[in-house]
Write a structure and sequence with these properties.
13 strands; alpha+beta; 333 residues; binds NADPH dihydro-nicotinamide-adenine-dinucleotide phosphate
């Protein structure tokens, strides 16, 4: 089925109005529409309009409060807790951001634990604005069990993405954002929808046998990237976004979840650092460029995030190609 060309505004309007029809207030709907539009704009379709049916499912089932108002509490001078009060993550993130930035610029380093949220998005949409404010930033979040601990047989960890942002003097920050599974579940869903098979080594079926069929892997489990090394990173994310901040581990989130197809309630951990307060205020930016230049001078090597920025510039001119299948699913809501 052919794709449909949409402007960023049309994507935003569709996302916002759909969410408002199903119980979000304007602030919550607008915050989710912002990150869906940014995902489509950067060519990250697995976290764009494709997520709308999942968001709507959580609103319809009553799991999420689409009118939740996040609250902010300083637990320590450099620890800004955001409680989403059972709402969707984007508004909690948007409202906490200025407090995190201010605390990091005052203290040099600050953390933002987010609790009581439902996270269904790409982390770069959250880290990039913090790095655009001149800060080094990190974020991670857990989900529901989808990844087998190295050597084990059953899914225990979420796909647990980690995202890191580095501000740059000229141009957008360098941001990488990656699941700790070999492939993000959203990418597996996309492959299932488009009828592509997966590369070897991505996941197993429900019986634990290696499979390249995305539908079977969605019923089974994913493998962590890099074997036991990625598995430890997935465990770290569980500890930071769950154990440290008084929120659920992925297996606990799943026990509470009603299985409506949307994101479970859980937590997120964000960190921000002011590079001007770490001992090389005059030099850090140029120094980092030397490293970036060395990477780019190698044929075939590039900085993470460059693909997205190219897509962003192209799509701003020509619009976004959205799958008709997704639009039909949204109409059916
Ligand atoms: P990818 O494997 O597609 O990309 C991971 C990172 O590597 C990106 O920053 C990408 O930059 C970079 N990269 C890719 N190729 C190269 C290359 N050749 N050289 C240098 N850098 C490169 O991402 P994943 O599939 O692991 O994750 C996709 C998304 O899913 C993420 O945004 C993540 O936040 C999200 N996610 C969300 C979850 C949630 O619960 N909310 C759970 C799991 C994942 P570029 O974009 O420029 O290609």
């Amino acid at each position: 089925m052919a794709d449909v060309n949409m402007s960023f505004k049309a994507v935003h309007d569709l996302a916002k109005s759909t969410l408002m029809t199903h119980g979000c207030d304007a602030e919550n709907a607008g915050a989710v529409a912002d990150i869906i539009t940014r995902a489509e704009g950067d060519g990250c379709h697995s976290h764009g309009l494709m997520r709308l049916p999942g968001y709507v499912a959580t609103l319809k089932s009553g799991k999420v409060n689409g009118k939740a108002r996040p609250t902010i509490k300083k637990l320590a001078p450099a620890v800004v807790q955001v409680n989403g009060h059972n709402g969707l993550a984007p508004l909690a993130l948007a409202e906490g951001r200025a407090h995190l930035i201010e605390a990091a610029k005052t203290c040099g380093i600050a953390a933002m634990p987010l609790i009581g949220i439902h996270h269904f998005a790409a982390l770069w949409t959250e880290v990039e604005p913090v790095s655009e404010a001149g800060l080094v930033a990190f974020a991670c979040t857990s989900y529901k069990p989808a990844v087998i601990p190295a050597g084990g047989t059953k899914a225990l960890y979420g796909t647990n993405p980690i995202c890191f942002g580095w501000p740059r003097k000229d141009g957008p920050p360098m941001v990488f954002d990656q699941a700790s599974s070999v492939m993000a579940r959203g990418e597996v869903m996309l492959a299932a929808r488009e009828g592509h098979s997966l590369p070897e080594g991505v996941g197993v079926d429900a019986a634990g046998n290696p499979s390249t069929d995305p539908d079977e892997v969605l019923k089974g489990a994913l493998l962590a990237f890099g074997g036991y090394k990625g598995s430890s990173i997935a465990m770290m994310v569980e500890l930071l976004a769950g154990g440290l901040i008084g929120e659920s581990f992925s297996f606990e989130a799943a026990m509470r979840d009603n299985g409506d197809g949307g994101p479970p309630q859980g937590g997120e951990f964000m960190l921000a650092m002011d590079p001007n307060l770490f001992g090389d205020a005059g030099g850090w930016a140029d120094h980092a460029e030397k490293l970036f230049d060395k990477i780019k001078e190698q044929d075939g090597a590039r900085l993470p995030g460059e693909r997205r920025h190219t897509n962003r510039a192209d799509n701003a001119k020509s619009g976004v190609a959205v799958s008709q299948i997704i639009l039909d699913k949204i109409s059916a809501l």
